[in-house]
């Protein structure tokens, strides 16, 4: 086994995702085979309803897969205890059920929950990790503000800092650029790219920002009509998957500029 293979953070084998209702199965996507290594930034791309959120929920253990396997740090996801999983994977969801009455530093500190004792006392090491996470996303100037005082872009950075404070090898984010303007979309995705390289964490996110993802990500997973394709931007551009992603009468993929254009 090569060193690279032995370092794999996330791997899926013939994964099928979807929902079970009584005796019925609704398969959303199948044949998902991905491999994500430390320091890689990976985007999950697909039209509305293609299964991006379902996949992220499956990879983070919120819902069970229909078939196939997920491995996190080479352990079968189904065998990982919840306590251990919260030290392996951090999850950033768009609609956070969090009290926005918390200050920024208090919210980032929640990332240390898997490590603190039952009264939640923070050790010196916890405080060090919290301050380091705040520095990494460059939010020192707002650390004492209440979360309800923040813009959507600032709040997204705080959620990313909380995931960093959780100190997991894998960070999963569901649509981290929702509600952001073009500058802040690019800023947040560029920040994720920088963090993946600086911290050597694997970062996987679902997004509709395909042009940005093609420029910034190491690999992309495309979900389309229950099928999936995984590869580097260069590999995917060589195939027809991008040209066929949207109805051609409105949007086409320009191979020369590696971006989507409106007709
Ligand atoms: N709890 C659920 N039970 C049954 N089916 C669901 C459930 N949640 C989602 N679905 C269905 O699964 C499919 C994929 O939904 P999902 O939310 O994963 O797509 P998505 O790619 O994240 O969409 P969007 O881009 O709109 O956020 C859709 O057909 C949706 O209706």
From TrEMBL:
Keyword DNA-binding: no
SUPFAM superfamilies, per the entry: P-loop containing nucleoside triphosphate hydrolases
Protein name from the UniProt record: ABC transporter ATP-binding protein
Keyword Transport attributed: yes
Superkingdom of the source species: Bacteria
Ranges where the ABC transporter domain occurs: 10-250
Annotated GO MF terms: ATP binding; ATP hydrolysis activity
Record-linked InterPro entries: AAA+_ATPase, ABC_transporter-like_ATP-bd, Metal_Ion_Import_ABC, P-loop_NTPase
Keyword vocabulary terms for this entry: ATP-binding, Nucleotide-binding, Transport
Coiled-coil blocks: none
